[in-house]
Amino acid sequence: ADKVVLQLKWVTQAQFAGYYVAKDKGFYEAEGLDVEIKPGGPDIAPPQVIAGGGADVVVDWMPSALATREKGVPLVNIAQPFKSSGMMLTCLKESGVASPADFKGKTLGVWFFGNEYPFLSWMSQLGLKTDGGPDGVTVLKQGFNVDPLIQKQAACISTMTYNEYWQVIDAGIKPEDLVTFKYEDQGVATLEDGLYVLEDKLKDPAFKEKMVKFVRASMKGWKYAETNPDEAAGIVLENDSTGAQTEMHQKRMMGEIAKLTAGSNGALDEADYKRTVASLMKGGSDPVITKEPVGAFTHEITDAALK
Amino acid sequence: MTITPASVVSARDLGLTFETNDGPVNALTGVNLDVNKGDFVSFIGPSGCGKTTFLRVIADLEKPTSGAITVNGTTPEDARKNRSYGYVFQAAALYPWRTIEKNIALPLEIMGYSAADQKARIDRTLDLVNLTGFGKKFPWQLSGGMQQRASIARALAFDADLLLMDEPFGALDEIVRDHLNEQLLKLWDRTNKTICFVTHSIPEAVYLSTKIVVMSPRPGRVTDIIESTLPKERPLDIRESPEFLEIASRVREGLRAGHSYDE
Amino acid sequence: MTITPASVVSARDLGLTFETNDGPVNALTGVNLDVNKGDFVSFIGPSGCGKTTFLRVIADLEKPTSGAITVNGTTPEDARKNRSYGYVFQAAALYPWRTIEKNIALPLEIMGYSAADQKARIDRTLDLVNLTGFGKKFPWQLSGGMQQRASIARALAFDADLLLMDEPFGALDEIVRDHLNEQLLKLWDRTNKTICFVTHSIPEAVYLSTKIVVMSPRPGRVTDIIESTLPKERPLDIRESPEFLEIASRVREGLRAGHSYDE
Amino acid sequence: MRRLTSLQTFLVLITGLQFFTFYPLLATPYLSGPRWGAFLMLPLIIYCLAFSLRRKRKKPIPALEWAALAYLIAFVPITLSSLNGFGSEAPPTNYWTTVIACIATAWLLNELLSSSNYRNAWVARLAFYAAPLIFGLSVLYLWEVLTRGLHIPFVLLPPPSMIWTRLIHSLPTLWADFQQTFLKAVITGYALGCGLGFLVAIAIDRSPFLQKGLLPLGNFVSALPVIGVAPIMVMWFGFDWQSKVAVVVIMTFFPMLVNTVSGLAATSSMEKDLMRTYAATWFQTLVKLRLPAAWPFIFNALKINSTLALIGAIVAEFFGTPIVGMGFRISTEVGRMNVDMVWAEIAVAAVAGSAFYGIVALIERAVTFWHPSVRNARTV
Amino acid sequence: MEKSNFFKDRVMPVGVILLALLVIWYVAVIFLNVPFERDTAARAGTAITFSEILPKTMFQQRPVLPAPHQVIAEIWNTTVLMPITSKRSLVYHAWITLSATLLGFGIGTVLGILLAVGIVHNRAMDRSLMPWVIASQTIPILAIAPMIIVVLNAVGISGLLPKALISTYLSFFPIVVGMVKGLRSPEQIQLDLMHTYYASPSQTFWKLRWPSSMPYLFTSLKVAIAISLVGAIVGELPTGAVSGLGARLLAGSYYGQTVQIWSALFMAAALAATLVIIVGFAHTAVLKRMGTRA
Ligand SMILES: Nc1ncnc2c1ncn2[C@@H]1O[C@H](COP(=O)(O)OP(=O)(O)OP(=O)(O)O)[C@@H](O)[C@H]1O
Ligand SMILES: Nc1ncnc2c1ncn2[C@@H]1O[C@H](COP(=O)(O)OP(=O)(O)OP(=O)(O)O)[C@@H](O)[C@H]1O
Ligand SMILES: [Mg+2]
Ligand SMILES: [Mg+2]
């Protein structure tokens, strides 16, 4: 079987259910592939791993992938299983935030490590500075959890619809006490969780062939997961070698993820791509990318895979 | 000067056994001894017979395993806590991070002498042991004999009524030794101190002491106690007097008797 | 025995100055000396006059700052590399983590003696210095004199033609000292070693030596070299002979002349 | 007096051999830079080879230092500047032999500088400081040549030249980060952590009860991993530098505790006996005997902690910070693939940490001047 | 000496201190966890009395500081009640971390000693290497750990070794610093003795420098083994946080499972304490063999 190494963006969880399902259900095997799934973590930059030859294909967010491309590591999007963005800002009602206009002077928790781009472009659209001055917002680099909100160290924090938001709920705060701003609704959504490979490797037809098979099987996995969320969550749990995930949380996550993947058959929607690029180039004084990327995605793989 | 001699050190049936990796070592057995106030007692005996150990017991650095001992009428521990003695170790034991001056100042600092007093005492004792000018040097910059003299100076710098001296003049040449012997006698005479003095030199023991304790090894015992009949005033040339020579030969006899390898 | 005495140590105008935190110290100046094969040379002089320093120069532990010196006709460094001498330090310098036996075995191990040979030599030298039975003890379990004897044993355990001994018998009582003096003389006589010997005892120096070097301090100089006229065969009671006493008094004169505080 | 050691002879020989194999390369088109330098070297090389072969020569050969230096001046620029010429191809073999020879020569120079005793005090001082500098420059040189010659993707490891450019263009950011992390978190945390470790060690020493009870528990604190502790500290002490201080305190506490306890046990029994004869109080014995004897150990801890504190503070910033600080910058710029910025930040950390260590080491020399490790190192 | 003293000398002091810490801990639990209960109550619009809050602070889902019994229960559940091979068993994760720690510590010790020997014996190394060894330690390991892992992965090394190397990186330094000092600690006269025997450098090393450096070595080893555990845990993050105590901590922290963090922390600390104590025993044994005065 052909060996494929997939580097995830984060730890094993339902966010990547499609790949685990495809592996577990033998979809990859059926295509003649032997896929190794490497979980990520807070210190793992998938672009770095792929540049260092540690993976054939990586899961990454488009802002980070495009930024990396501009830095000289030519990543190419070959498939986009996630149609919509799950990112949002979750605020405590008692902190007095009701609309984006109330952000001024507040402390906001943000993820960095390449995940801050959508936030930064949103803020620059709102005309808010992020350097902590009086007519801007104070930005905190948020850890991996929702403590800043619970400890009231920040007025709002970044959450994903499928993960952190529910942790806030689990911590005993009721949905009525929260105000959420989905990036999707604010018109600043960027594409998340796409599959990326190195451009020069795509020149090799054998590799291309392998990727076609891989995408085909992965999408099969995703669709299976959408329709059988509980089973998918179980498969994810089995693959979690830290033994730290709980069943309840993973099932719920799977449900939310299904909403995000629902609109996609795996092919990248060019309109979404354009919107993402536009949003990234607008980033005020320090735009994420400075020029329109060329060749940052290809439909060749998905076209062949979905034939 | 007191008229009735009070007992400064009094040992009854004293014994001390060290436990070592290959069996116990009897360092002292059945030692009976009285040292009176104002005595100058010399301990003499073959190497390893327990002289140092006995001094250490008096100084409360070693606990006897049998028998009883009092120092100044109290336990050695109380005597130590009253700072009633000064001790000169067989090795110099100077602290390498202090200059010679500072080493001498050490007990003075601990006992809370004033700065001016410290200075005066340092100068005086440095002069006494002929080390003037070496006060600012570090121990490793001195010769062996000079280090030993520095450690004598350290013990003489403060006023203890009892001096315990373990071969203080071992590494010194005859001339310096004679000089220091005289100085020590003068000091003793002037201050009415009690001195316990370990030496290997028979003439030195006889010249200095009012009482000579001869010890023998394995197990360490007191074999003879010789009271000196020499007058308190002792010029250096007393060492040629017949009285002196007679005492010396008695000590030599006692010493030889305790030795294992006589020809 | 060789007939023409070859020069084992030969110093010409030797000088050594230590740089210290408060200025230079002249430890040796203008030292001229020849030690011939088979000589027994004693160095005597007041404390701090440079005896140890001179021995250290011979042993290549200190580099002279002026003048020249040869040992066995070569530089001290080459002599050291040929392992042509044994050195007894003024302090015992035993390694605390080795038992007495192991301490004596140290040079033997380094010079590659066989295990059986090591054992034999350890037993022999332990016996020589009267420490049989103490081989398994650690240094701190021995008295000061016993430690010093152990360090002598260590230097005697291997066969060096030149022995450098820095006050080896300083901490020993007269009887042991006499015994070891005799043993040393016997050894010297039997093996035709050359011995450089630092001592503070005038009788010891006269009794042992064929040549006595008298030194004086600040700066360290050789003030007198006295050739002994005593015969090679020396019973202990030679020390009462008029010849002996005459040499002794000559040494005493020389010594006193170098001293700073004569009455 | 100086003779070449066998190592030095070896180095001279490979340098010389390389020199002749390098000539063919001079003709190739992609070599750029001052080539004539290589030819100027010829007489010097021959001179040195001649001398290195005459082993028994006893007089010093000061020219050898100059020769090594001249060799480096001639060849290092050539190898560096021709890196551009290779494009995406791999450099030829004799390019690499030249690089190896340059490194060998730098090491040779170091050997020479540190093994000879220069009469002139100035020259001696220069040699003293030159050695680490040359070593460092050779590391940087090798790094540059390897990353660019082997075309290592720069997101994995950028060449030093690139890091340097980034460094000088981001000074204000770097300074702000340095203030936040080093001046606030590291210094405070270091002082508190070392102080606490020291005080607990003293307390343990004072009371046998604590010694038996607290020391085993002290071991327990020894390996509270930063990763576990940092989020908790952020939770307790907030996002700003205070929580980093707490992490640094925890990291530095144990080395100090262990070393101080060992140091306090390092006095010999006779030294202690002396204090007993004076009936010195526990405190007097501590100040006048046991602390001085413990300094060498305590300084070990201070030195180890000077680097640990920095690592601790930086790592702690990975777990939540305001958007300034060296750790913050490193973690975010890795995500942004600005690896050159990451290394610029690391360079600042390395310089700051080394300077910190150096200051501690200088104080150590002054305080423990009497210790054989300092005394002997100076006289030998 | 006697058996009865074991209780008095060991168990009791530790017990008393432990008890004191527990009390402090419980008090801290109350103080740190009260605000959250107040807030919850305030949001629900109900007033709540202190006596009602108290028991609640002891059993929160996501406490700021979990109560000791919560941690103990979690440890009990994940060690004793769980088969060792299970991925949810703390023992399993501890073993993974321990193996990386021990390997890293071993390599680190050897490397540290070798460097110290080089530095003590070679002047060029002393002058040029030492500053850079120090500089190497100021590089935040977490920053370059991913690169190390990626690079090692690229050349085909993965699994235990990359983690162990990170722990090596942290642990060799205390050993270098301690051993340089220790190997230089023999007194001049002891060195002179070796000099007079014209002992070879290796003889001087084994018969003098090495034994005299023992107190320094063991002190350094204690610090190093503790740090190498920290290193192994740090090294577990960029390997994808798959397993080991580090992954456990991370996952706990990611999902805000304070109790899980604390139990992993305790496991790590217990592991460290055990390792340090083992080194301590070795130290005592060696000192005894070297005849050091009690
Ligand atoms: N700490 C110890 N442990 C075990 N044995 C010891 C210890 N100290 C001394 N000894 C033994 O006790 C005996 C007496 O020793 P001590 O030091 O009192 O002799 P000394 O009379 O002072 O001899 P010297 O004149 O050589 O100094 C010796 O046999 C010695 O080996
Ligand atoms: N390492 C050193 N640094 C500075 N000065 C020193 C050093 N070693 C010795 N000296 C000085 O050199 C002089 C001679 O010392 P040396 O040890 O040779 O004397 P000595 O004749 O052996 O005396 P003693 O009989 O007391 O042992 C002394 O004044 C001493 O202070
Ligand atoms: Mg004694
Ligand atoms: Mg001397």
Automatic annotation (TrEMBL), chains B, C:
InterPro entries: AAA+_ATPase, ABC_transporter-like_ATP-bd, ABC_transporter-like_CS, ABC_transporter_ATP-bind, P-loop_NTPase
Pfam families linked to this entry: ABC_tran (PF00005)
SMART domains with a match to the protein in the record: AAA
Gene Ontology molecular functions: ATP binding
Gene3D superfamilies attached to this UniProt entry: P-loop containing nucleotide triphosphate hydrolases
Domain ABC transporter: residue ranges: 9-242
Keyword S-adenosyl-L-methionine: no
Keywords noted in UniProt: ATP-binding, Nucleotide-binding, Transport
UniProt family annotation: Belongs to the ABC transporter superfamily.
Protein name according to UniProt: NitT/TauT family transport system ATP-binding protein
UniProtKB/TrEMBL annotation, chain D:
UniProt keyword list: Cell membrane, Membrane, Transmembrane, Transmembrane helix, Transport
Cellular localisation: Cell membrane
Topological relation to the membrane, as annotated: Multi-pass membrane protein
Secretion signal, residue range per the UniProt entry: none
Superkingdom to which the source organism belongs: Bacteria
Residue ranges occupied by any ABC transmembrane type-1 domain in the UniProt entry: 195-367
Membrane found in the keyword field: yes
Transmembrane stretches, start-end: 37-54, 66-87, 93-110, 122-143, 182-204, 216-239, 245-266, 308-330, 342-363
Main location: membrane
Protein name per Swiss-Prot or TrEMBL: NitT/TauT family transport system permease protein
Lineage of the species this protein comes from: Bacteria, Pseudomonadati, Pseudomonadota, Alphaproteobacteria, Hyphomicrobiales
UniProtKB/TrEMBL annotation, chain E:
Domain ABC transmembrane type-1: 90-283
Name of the protein in question: NitT/TauT family transport system permease protein
Transmembrane segments: 12-32, 92-120, 132-154, 160-180, 216-241, 261-287
Homology family: Belongs to the binding-protein-dependent transport system permease family.
Membrane topology classification: Multi-pass membrane protein
Keywords assigned by UniProt, alphabetized: Cell membrane, Membrane, Transmembrane, Transmembrane helix, Transport
Compartmental location: Cell membrane
Alphabetized InterPro entries for the sequence: MetI-like, MetI-like_sf
Keyword field contains Transmembrane: yes
